[in-house]
Amino acid sequence: MTMEEAKKKFKITIVEERCKGCGYCKETCPKDVFEFEGTLNAAGYVVSSPKHLDRCIGCNSCVMVCPDLALSLSEEA
Length: 77
Ligand code: SF4
Ligand code: SF4
Known about the structure:
The chain is of the alpha+beta class.
């Protein structure tokens, strides 16, 4: 594996207004990327935050598990 491959960076974007704070993303993520820090959206749900993106391996599990389609994964150039 080259250094470039090893340094591949991923980005998780959350649409906070869709999040219902269920925590499935946090439970599912193998790298413990998500945190709940008490931020409320307009509907009053405590939203998830992809805080530790440096740990993300791009497995897409969180995107698949989110029942509210709040998450998306992209690869940073
Ligand atoms: S893509 Fe995988 S490693 Fe990255 S935040 Fe989602 S579940 Fe975690
Ligand atoms: S799985 Fe989706 S709705 Fe549930 S806390 Fe995570 S981002 Fe929010």
